[in-house]
Amino acid sequence: MTLGKRQKRGSAATARGQGMARSLSYITAPQLISIARNPRVAIVDVRDEERSYDAHIAGSLHYASDTFSERMPDLLHAVKGKDTLVFHCALSQVAPFPLLSIAVRGPSCARKFLEYLSETKDAGINNVMVLDRGFNGWHASGNPVCQCTTNPCTGNCA
Predict the structure, then answer these.
(1) What is the pTM of this model?
(2) Exposure winner among 26, 52, 111, 143, fewest CB in 10 A?
(3) Closest by CA position to 33, among listed 111, 158, 157, 142
(4) Is 146 a catalytic residue?
């Protein structure tokens, strides 16, 4: 498929035309803050055990990377009615070397989910994004975090 100069692969316009997301994009913390309260947006935390002692973004769903592949059908069910998913891990970086898998949990899980979506019927998900700088960047920037132990987080954190 050839896209015009103004459309980039995976853009909302392209996704609506195809009925599903086609590629990943990154979203900054300020951009996420501006859309996080939208009921059609879901934040997916793929960190493993560190979520329990490091806190998390209020309202996020937890699907640990070590069991993510097996739980993708559960995630799809949990995000029914959402059109934008924002994945993150601790850093949400693309590793320069394939062996640095710990640093790429967010982007890797987001890509796996995109592949899964391409094999399912239209799920209504138009945008799959990765939080730039991950949870660590979010927290270091002074953005609000939650320390509740519920999953999904209700978002009513102090």
Answers:
(1) 0.80
(2) 52
(3) 142
(4) no
